[in-house]
Amino acid sequence: MMEKKVKLRTVNSCITCILCRGYLIEATTTTECLHTFCKSCLVRYLEDHNSCPKCQTLIHQSHPMNYISHDRTMQDIVYKLVPNLQQKELRRQQEFFRKHASQGIKPELEDVNDNHTENVVSVKEENKDFHRHDEQLNVCLECQGTMKNLKRKFLRISSQATVSHLKKFVALKLYSDQTKYTNIEILCNDELLGKHHTLKFVAVTRWRVKDGPLLLHYRQKTLDF
């Protein structure tokens, strides 16, 4: 099988950040629209905005930074495609730590070896806590109407997750396509919920002091005539 070579500039638009126009560093993706940016660029942008810099999709009304995540796969692709980018970034970080050593900031990076193309950041894991510290809610998702039942209807989920996230979850589980979430409605006590409502808001305003998990129903979107 003949190997086909592709010039880097043909894929540049897929591996660069539209905010800084450079190659992605610490690639970070929004959970709403799945667009990717440099972590520092996106965090700086979200200090004053709550929507995606590329498509303007609302990430979250009040806590957009809770709905972005590190995209390790994308970052690995960028490092493999762009020669010496990882080595240059590691050297830049080491230089930063050297300049700020007086402030007690210590690097946990391995020395960069130009003879190797796969240098890895070394992180001390023994004292790291990987548990989530945001408030969690127990949720039960029941089917209402003719849609299929979920195989696992009980969820433990962040209280800052929105109704829109639940709709996408149901669409992914039932249709294997989260883009069909617009055809799904979520209800609590037979009341249709707004897509931007957080589960914390729903629990406080709709569920109140009821025992057990937050009971929500999903159904096919009703057509308006």
The coarse silhouette is globular
CA-CA gap between termini: 57 Å
Question: How confident overall, as mean pLDDT?
Answer: 82
Helix percentage: 25-40%
Task: Give the helix/strand class.
Answer: alpha+beta
Order of helices and strands: HEEHEHHEEHEEHE
Cross-sheet strand order for the largest sheet: 5-4-8-6-7
CATH homologous group name of the largest domain: Phosphatidylinositol 3-kinase Catalytic Subunit, Chain A, domain 1
- The tally of strands reads 8
Poorly predicted parts: 108-131
Q: What is the count of structural domains?
A: 2
Q: What characterizes the major β-sheet?
A: 5 strands, mixed
In DSSP terms, counting alpha (H) and pi (I) runs of 4 or more, how many helices? Answer: 6
β-strand percent reads 15-25%
The CATH architecture of the largest domain would be Roll
What is the CATH C level class of the largest domain, in words? Answer: Alpha Beta
What radius of gyration results from the CA coordinates? 22 Å
The CATH topology of the largest domain corresponds to: Ubiquitin-like (UB roll)
Topology:
Blueprint: H1 12-15, E1 27-30, E2 36-38, H2 39-46, E3 68-70, H3 72-81, H4 85-99, E4 136-143, E5 154-158, H5 163-175, E6 184-188, E7 191-192, H6 199-207, E8 214-220
Parallel strand pairs: 4-8
Antiparallel strand pairs: 1-2, 1-3, 4-5, 6-7, 6-8
